[in-house]
């Protein structure tokens, strides 16, 4: 197969230009089909087989594959092409065989597989969601951290302490997600030698606090930079290291497969973090260079893990860039490589970064809407926007707090449900001027062994908006259902007396993409209950407690789940899993919810402790109730929470 030559020209001040970039050889379809037959196939669950037809629910993802010669072997991606069409003009051409695609609407989806002049098809029928199921945007509330490696490079203990302290504050604010960094330059500083220590530590710190991870990936090791470049964040690799580039990102996605789903490639490539100096990277030529490497990255990441969701690098869409600079950049990407090499668009829609009054722009809303317009015009409206950085560089903490509330309210408006996540920047200051007080929600003392974070006045604005005025999370053990010691279908750690756990990948349903790897289940239409006692927390007069979770109708996609709050009639001083919840349970409040074929976060049950209540001073119990409490059917649950305000 003919190889396309990459031509690079180094100009003044380290400028890097590129011409003649075309289709890479590994992505060009062979002129000869080496297979006697091909079979287009669909796979729904991780343990399910391949089929020529399948049924799912709208909003669910499904896997597409081309098998060869009547076997279960996937065809080599360079020998076959895939095309999926569906309702409302849906069309994608997955560049990697065996990946997952979305079914955003109900209706029929057709997979067409081609190997030169041999064609095969398979179909998927997506049925309608249960009526009344709320639309979910679970990653809307997100706070980023300034990674510890920025201050403590080389001291892994200090780096870990910084990250853990930061992520704890993210969780305490009620945020459900955060941002971590997988830097090629840091992980492979020496060619062929990988150090995953920092990456694993960041992931572990986020997982321990129940946070969904959105990962930055990018930068180039010094050894792979083109001649004349010395900064890892300022250039893709020299073309001679293309194979190393793809090998690393294939390894990255494979290592974190089914742990990290969301990635973006590079940071502000249209701004200060690309090949031209003086932040001059918003032109067509630089966009095309970025698009070519985005394409290579996308293919490698999908080969490593077919289920990852991949976004463009967070584009600088600050108010000073205007309404259309980012949308023009996205259009250039479409023109260069089409729409098959990114699943989402990540942007940084800052309003006025240094606001002085409430009339200043809190977001660059015209830029967000303009980028959305490109996705619609390009017939890919199901692709989401990640508002991956926004914040305010001001010492006026009261103003910063008001700006945060306005931005969160805008993102929460159902009219803007095309925004999938919105990450405030940041827990700690960024190092920009003034270096001692800018975007951060906390003051920092880095002189002690473990960094101390002290809340600024803007932090409660975020927390109160999410959790209610004065709100705080109470620590439920194993609230994300991830930390179990039994095998699948066994007992749930720290919960009882009934219930078990299972893997989402084996029981896929819409909107489970942010719920981790495992979920809990029990039979609500029987005497079974699932609960936990908080031995270290007691009811306080006048406080309101809210217990809620994500829930689903189980194997038959329908059911009723009773959420309950109660107290322990007799103190239990044993570990929660050893307490007898049934004999000690005293009921306070129940609220039931009908659940269906799509995961969603219910409002749960709330209880305000009145004066004279027998619950005052008693240990708190939360649980899912039984048939006698109004329960029906097989219930699945995940990501449980208890808040107090």
From TrEMBL:
Give the domain of life: Bacteria
Among InterPro entries, the record links this protein to: GH, Glycosyl_Hydrolase_39
Cleavable signal peptide: none
Q: Which PANTHER family match?
A: ALPHA-L-IDURONIDASE (PTHR12631), BETA-XYLOSIDASE-LIKE PROTEIN-RELATED (PTHR12631:SF10)
- The name this protein carries in UniProt is CBM-cenC domain-containing protein
Its ancestry begins with: Bacteria, Pseudomonadati, Myxococcota, Myxococcia, Myxococcales
